[in-house]
Amino acid sequence: MNIKQFLKTNVLAIAALILFTGSIMSFTLMEKKSVLATTYFYNSADISAGAFANPSHWNTTNASDCETDGERPCSIVVPDGQTLGSVLAGKTNAQVLSMSPNRKP
User: Given a cut of 70, is residue 6 above it in pLDDT?
Assistant: First the structure.
């Protein structure tokens, strides 16, 4: 069997293999991108206006557990290439709370 005939008879299998390989590689690239983000945790008891947007109230280590309810944000994710200050800049407490998937009491 020569190569041309092999390719003609197996063109669908080859195409499926190429698509499968491409999709696996795209998932691998997406996983690597998410690793580059940094998670910051709110480590202050301050709930006054604008307090949640103060970068000094955030740290990369968590001082207390996150919950589903509470008055304070728990964590936010800062994408690679951005700073905590730029993500929080000009935000109100309500806007920062909406960025946080969890809360602190």
Answer: yes
